[in-house]
Amino acid sequence: MLEVHDLTVRFGGITALDSVGFSVWSGEMVGLIGPNGAGKTTLFNCLTRRYDADAGEVRYEEENLLAVPPHAIAGLGIARTFQNLGLFGHMSVRDNILVGAHHTGGAGFLTAALWLPRVRREEARLRAEADSLLERLALTEVADHPAAGLPFGTLKRVELARALVGRPKLLLLDEPVNGLNSAEVEEFSGTLRALREEFDVTVVVVEHHMGFVMGICDRVVCLDFGRKIAEGPPAEVQRDPGVMRAYLGTAI
Ligand SMILES: Nc1ncnc2c1ncn2[C@@H]1O[C@H](COP(=O)(O)OP(=O)(O)OP(=O)(O)O)[C@@H](O)[C@H]1O
């Protein structure tokens, strides 16, 4: 589904990604780990076209992803969540989720402005889809509540719902369990595992929580200072001497 070749991104004198390469097969859940500043978010930002690459190639379902404009990414079936949440605080939880479905609507500006029957049908379909996700992620009770002021664990689920409502094929999760307590991490893992099957979605997840990564991922890629230093099954990567060195002083 996804092939990254020799991907390089520089910011002035910093090489955030240095000839990184790996593949993701359809249906896999791949963990992307590495110490702070390793380049994980930069990689996501390249895949979603927020950042331009200085060199390298990314193929997504045979398409040259680096030539795709940022606004067309969602339409290709790629969705992401953000490390520090990308929600609109003043908007309700339901509306935040509906934002994630905007690209699935086929109505043009004029049809939408005139509120024609086709638009009403489409709106009803999207709302039904959002409602089913609200229920699935235990968010129905807060559906009409503004996002601002809700507990962090709840907002993490809203982010996931917003990413899923557009029915993505590839889901990029940036630190989805960061800030959650251990019971919430456990619950989130179970939900994600089930949703992955239900939505038939391929997942790449950036996360520092090793218990989560090791428990849920099929394969793990480790970056350090912009370079890939290990790749393989979770247990193998966890024992890798280079990975241990990169995390020296950090329990993994
Ligand atoms: N927009 C930017 N401008 C300048 N430097 C940047 C920018 N984005 C990232 N960097 C730098 O690139 C390097 C990689 O950062 P990145 O955020 O990708 O790391 P990360 O692995 O996601 O870290 P963390 O686990 O702390 O989120 C860091 O040195 C960072 O300071």
Automatic annotation (TrEMBL):
Q: Name one GO cellular component term.
A: plasma membrane
Instruction: State the UniProt keywords alphabetically.
Output: ATP-binding, Nucleotide-binding, Transport
Under the heading Gene3D superfamilies, the entry gives: P-loop containing nucleotide triphosphate hydrolases
Provide an example Pfam family for this protein: ABC_tran
Q: Which InterPro entries match?
A: AAA+_ATPase, ABC_AA/LPS_Transport, ABC_transporter-like_ATP-bd, BCA_ABC_TP_C, P-loop_NTPase
Q: Which residues form the ABC transporter domain?
A: 2-250
Which GO MF terms does the UniProt record name?
ATP binding; ATP hydrolysis activity
**What is this protein called in UniProt?**
Amino acid/amide ABC transporter ATP-binding protein 1, HAAT family
* Taxonomic source organism: Streptosporangium subroseum
